[in-house]
Each structure stands twice: as C-alpha cells, then as structure tokens.
Amino acid sequence: MTGPVVDIKDLRVTFATDGGDVAAVKGVSLQLQPGEVLAIVGESGSGKTVTARTVLGLLPETALTRGAVVLRSKDGGTTSDVVTLRGGDLRSVRGRDAAMVFQEPGSVLNPVYPVGWQIAEGLRAHGDVSKKEAREVAVDVLRRVGIPDPEERVDHYPHQFSGGQKQRIVIAQALALNAGVIIADEPTTALDVTVQAEILDLLRRCRDEFGASIVLITHNMGVVADLADRVAVMYQGELVETADVATLFADPQQEYTRTLLGSVPKLGQGAARARDRAARRPEGWAEQPAVVTARDLRIVYPGRFRKPDFTAVDGVDFTIAPGEVLGLVGESGSGKSTIGRAIAGLTPVSGGSLTVLGTEVAGIKEKAFRPVRRRIGFVFQDPATSFNPLLTIADAVAEPLVVHGQAGDTDGARGRVDELLEAVQLPKAFGDRFPHELSGGQRQRASLARALALQPELLIADEPTSALDVSVQARVLELFDELQREFGFAALFISHDLAVVDLLADRIAVLHHGRLVEEGTGERVLGAPQDPYTQRLLASLPVPDPAEQAQRRARWAALR
Amino acid sequence: MSRRRTSRRTWRSLPVVHQLRQSVGLQRGMLVTGLVLTGVLVLAAVFAPLLAPYGYGQLRDADGAFGAQQPPSGDHLLGTTVGGYDVLSRVIYGSRTAVFVIVVAIVLSIVAGVLLGLVSGYLGGWLDRVLVVIADAVYAFPSLLLAIVAAIVISGGQSSLVGGVLAAAISITVVFIPQYFRVVRAETVRIKSEAFVESARVVGTGTWRIMTRHVLRNATRSLPLIVTLNASEAILTLAGLGFLGFGIQPTAAAEWGFDLNRSISDVTSGIWWTSIFPGAAIVLTVLGLTLVGESLNDLADPRLRSRRRAADVPPPADVAVTPGGGLAAGTEGGTP
User: Fold this and answer.
1) To 10 degrees, the CA torsion angle through A476, A242, A217, B324?
2) Which residues of A touch B310 (CB under 8 A)?
3) Hey, which residues 11-40 in chain A have their CB within 8 Å of chain B?
4) Where does the record place Gly residues bias (chain B) (predicted)?
5) Residues B290-308: pLDDT tens digits?
6) Chain-chain contact of A17 with B195 (C-beta, under 8 angstroms)
7) Which superfamily is assigned to A1-6+30-59+70-97+180-266+541-560 in CATH?
8) Is the domain covering A270-529 a CATH 3.40.350.10 domain?
C-alpha cells in the first residue's frame, strides 16, 4: 500500500449563520495513513468535527467547502475528491470507503427496525445482495463486535440493547461494508467509563483485525492516550500541532497543547490538597453535628404503565460534616444525581431518613422546607439551561436575595451581586449581559455566584463541569476550591469523573446501582480500593499518558 | 439560535422587526407582502373617516338619495349596493369592524388562554386534566356553529356595533382559547422541567413568582405566530357570521360578510361591483395576515429558514467564534 487513505489539503469550511459567516475550518491539511488511528483533539468550536465530517461530505447546506479531501478506497484502486462529489457518486463512497460512528448510539439507530435490518441496509445500498446473504453478514459482523448470541439478537430492536451494545452495533454497521476509514466522532463520550474501555478495545480490534484506518475525534486526552497512533491538535479552526502520540504527550511543541495537557485532571493530584485541608481544621471539628445525614436512604421512582417501580437509591448511609467536601462518584443510573436532588428537596424521599441542616426531609411539606432552602446552594450540570434566557446575569444572581427578602429588586441587590461576581472572577459589567452572551465556563461561574448568594452552609454541585471543555473545567474546579476555602461551606460534589472528584473531595463515596459500595478518603478509595466495582472503575479510567495507559490496559484486561 | 444578537433589547429585537431583518429571498418577499397588506388594513381602519367619501350608513347626500345598485361612476367610485349604500365607503369602514373584532377577540382569548395554560401546565394534577378535557371538547366543536350559538346567546342574533362586534369577538374567543391554552400549556410543561426553573425552586422561590417571572415569558415565544394566524381566522368567522345573517346591522357598522350576503342576488343579474369589492377585501386581509403568520413560522424554525450563502472569501480572522456556538447549530441543522 502506498500513500495515505485520506488526504485533506488546505481545507476551508465557512458556515452561513444568522450572525454572519463563521469560518469553522481555516486551511487544515491532514493525512491518514493506512492502518493508523489519527486522533483529532480540540475544544468545542475548534472545528474537529467539521473537519472529520467533510471526509464523508456530511456538512449542511449552509456550509461552503474549499480545498480537497481525497479519499482512497480500501484496495487502493480508486481515489475521489469528496468535496467535489455530488449525489450518487457521494453515496457510493459513503459506507464503502469511509463510515461514521456517531456520539450518541441511542439516537443513531432507528428504533422501529431490527438491528440486523439496519446493518443490512448499508449492504443493500452498495450492491445486490439477497436477504439471506445480508443476514449472514449481519450475524457475522455482530459476532465479531462482541454481541452474544448474534443469530438471535440480529432480530432484536435497538431498545433491547444497552448503550454500550448499541455503540457496538453502530460500529458493526461501519464494519459490515468493510470500510477502509472509520470516522469515530466522540464514540465514547455518552458512555460510562467501564463501557468506554470496552468500546475503545473494540475500536482497536477494528484496526488490528479489520484493517480499518480510524479518525478519532475526541476531547478526552485519556482516550487519545489509549487508542491513537498520531494526534492532531486543533484550535479555532486551525491545526496547532501534529505529532505521534508518545511525542505529543512527552514533549508538546506548542503553548496551546501544553496548556491543554496541563488542564487534564490526573488521579492522585488531590491527596495532597485533602491532607492540607484536614490539617487546617480546628480541634473538635469531627464532633460538630453533621450538615447532612442519610440513614438507610431509599428513593423510589414509581413505575408507569404497569412497569415495576424503579429503586434509584437503595439503602444508602453517609454524612457530610460542616466544611467538608464529599465526592459522590458513579456511572449513569447509579443514583448519584437523585441523592443530590433529594437533599435539595427536588425529589421526594421514599424511605429511611435524610436529615439536612437539622431538618428531617423524608415526608416534609414544601412550606416547611422553604426556610432550609436558603441555606443550600445548588449548581446544575448544564450551564446553558440553568439560566432563564430572558433575565440578565445580575437578575439571576439577585433572584435568591430578592426571594428571601434581603433585597427589594435587582437594583437593590446590585452591590451584593457585584461582590459575588467578583468572587467568581467575572467582571462586574457581565451582570448586564444575558446568559447566551457568556461562554459555558463563564456561565458556570455565574451559576456558582448565584448558588453562593445567600452564603449557604451546604452546596450541592451536580456534575458542574461535565459540559465544559478541559481547560475551562480546570479553571472552574480551581475556583470551586478557592471559594470553598474562603466561604467554608460543606459540599456534595457529584461527578462521573474520578479524577475531578479526587481533585476536590475530602472523602469519596462510590455508588453502584443505587448502593454505596465504598466510602473513604480519596487516598484510600483511589489508592487501595476494596470493592471489585471500584477496582474495575479505576482500571477503566484512561489516563492521559500513553505509556502508563498501556500498562493500565493490560491490568484492565486481566481484571475483566 | 443566534448568539450574537444585539446585546441590549432594542427595537431591532422586537418580534416582527427581528424576523424581517433576519429573512432573505422568497421568505422576505412573503413577509413584506403580508406586512404591506396588513398595514393597508390597519391604515384604512384608522383613517376611515378621512378616506371614505361617505358614511357607512349614508343613503343620501345634498343631491338626494344615492339610488340602489348604481354602477361605478364619478360620484360612487365602486357603485352602490342593493340597499343604496356607497360600496367604497362600506369597504373602507368594514376594515374598522374587522380590526375591532380581531383586537377584541385576540386580547380576550390571549388573556384567558395564556392564564389557564400557565396554571394548568405548571400545577398539573386534576385541574390540568379537567381543563384539557374541556379544551378538547371545545376544539371538537365546529367553530362557526359555536360562533352562531354564541352570537344568539349574547345578542339575540341582531345588534348594534358594540353588541355585534362583542358577539362576534366573544364567540371567536371561545373557539380560540383552547388554541392558546394548548400551546402555552405544552410550553409550560416543557419549561417546568428546565434547569432554570429547578434552580428557582431550589432557591425557595414561590410558585406564583416562578410562574410569572420564569415560565410565562419563556412560554409565550410562539404566540405572535398564532396571533397572526388566528387573526385571519377571526375575520373569516366574522364574515361567515355576517354572511349567515348573524352580523351587524348596516346602520350600526359596515361589515363585509353582511354586504356579501346582500349581494347574492346581484351576482346572477350581472351586478358585479357589490360582491367583488367586499369579497376582495376579505381575501386580501386574510392573505396578508396568513402570509405574515406563515413566514414568521418558517423564520422561527432554523431548519426552514433560508440564509444567505456563505461568501467565498473567508471573513477576517477577528470574527470571534463562540465555542460550540454557530458551529454546533450548523452541523445539527444539517443532520437529517
């Protein structure tokens, strides 16, 4: 084989938007060699997805593409410039030469057709195959991506598979046509860490066993370290740096790459901080009454349409002492957000006891709970939706003060609002802006300001950084740490990311299927995990260091 | 949507003005045509006494009676009706009645519909279920039949200007309330679960304050659209009532539907001017309002909105790319 399978030459993409033209990609040149995994990394808006989508000609009509994207078929027989292809020619290239694996496996599969039919659809589009042949190929490819009982499962519908299995099926779709290039757009972002490790393993096999070249788009440096051979770093539509993976992590050339790598939280960073905090605590701290005490806490969502009730939280015990940060870790569906919502009075408690700031929450009436609310702050996951789009930031931050009668209106609270904005390192002038005029990180800082407006004794942060880019996340986490030290509030920090929790929490609690499997200081839980689930969780977490990740991968394989 | 809208709320971000600035090509043509037709209607209504040569109920001037069914002439530009009224004057004055009915009907139905929708959607429970059933029941009723019943109940079928207009307006209101109710209720149910409402609840904000400050204004975004579409429907209902004889007496006000009703017999005898002009007035008004409504509908949906093509030359580098901003919207819009 000679030459690259994908050769992107001076690619420029401009989008027509309501706010004028936006240049998304500004002259990018990239090459993908046969049998290579090329990772394109960058923050949101860096143009990484747009660049990868041009390989399949998947851009919307509002996009104007210049440059060339030369795609070579797997046998090396034909080459075609995707940018100039239209209609039928483009369709014949799609799937045969290059296939796509999307971020959200749940929405990529059509819910009304069996998965086998959907795999066969690609085969039918590229040639005359009989039903029987198509089925055989589908069964075969399902077996090879690791779906058990493929002969039977081929007739099942997407909802009968788990999230990880759905992503396997999407990859199977790409493999069925034996595509030379697989574009994987954030293939594991929507999946849990333990599932992510399996999908990354499968992608690696795609390359080794099927001989596919992979373009991996991701913002997760751990994923890059795990899978990629070569890395292209993008920033604001331009290529910052391209290097093979070991060189990039060991010796990044550009300032931006260094910053990006430096912002990635790593396991074990938090131990020193936690010790430091523990040392500064006054005498008799442990004897103070706890801010939150949960005893055999149960939260059940009633089943609808004759389905059985769903137990989200099943007999959990924990306490949060004043000024202490408890990190709550778990995968999706583990009940971690439900616990946070129950403490804030957003979800009713079904059984056991939950005492928040001296008030028993189980069975409490909204009116009786309202005085407690002013002592609790809440930071939501998605900063885009947690602000009323029609109120200015000052209005939103002043809202708690107005509601609790500490100010008549926004103007009356403005002095305090400015102080709060300053505390979260936002310029005062931002108070007059509307939420959509702030970036995600700025909005999340404003969200912190709002949560702190009433000087709460307890702050609940529900995945506050999971919607943010790594570099932004690093700043928000640092700010959280500073504010916690300054204001001394107790906090429940909920996250799926062990490294993030490790950075901030004094103690870590690990949830699995609504049960608390392990609890202790960060050092103990992460350093010497006792529970097999915690061990698996830790082993699945890819670390942003190729050499170390290779060792971890071996350990993970042994643990499986 | 657009993240780079003007930072302060100026006249540019007012409902219709904002969409007009946003539109291009055919959609802009439709919107402008609709706005011009609607503007003509409003101007005619406001300046009717100045524009119309005679009064709507005037049968004679200094030279004596006009005479019935006179063809268009210098004295009567569009001729006279079977009852001896001036057609041009009645067409112009008819716009007043139309605008009056639209305004009253829409104000009444918006106030009631939005309030009920908000309460029903936010509080939920049995109140919600009862209101939804009632709304569905009203919805299932033929609207003109309902309007006739309401007209009879309110005014006995015949009445003065205010009585007739109110009868028409209230009957239209009854039909429209469920529409506003449904739209606002659906939006409220959606917004209720948004993080910013939960955030207000966590703070301890009272129910009424959440409803008015956080939910109401976010739930009313699509209302301008329904208003324009309903306005055209209101005119048709009013004309239908007038045509069926449940309208306003010619001496009380000019009403296009009533005039059409009176001109039925004229059509067969070759007297075209008594029916064409009131009919054309109805058609143009409805067309204008529908065009405005439809183009607002298309413009509100990023997938239906047409945009200028991107210029071939890349814009200067200082154009700030908001992280994930326009870019994300662009790629999502293109995914089928």
Assistant:
1) 50
2) 14-16, 21, 62-64
3) 12, 14-24, 26
4) 323-336
5) 888 888 877 766 666 666 6
6) no
7) P-loop containing nucleotide triphosphate hydrolases (3.40.50.300)
8) no
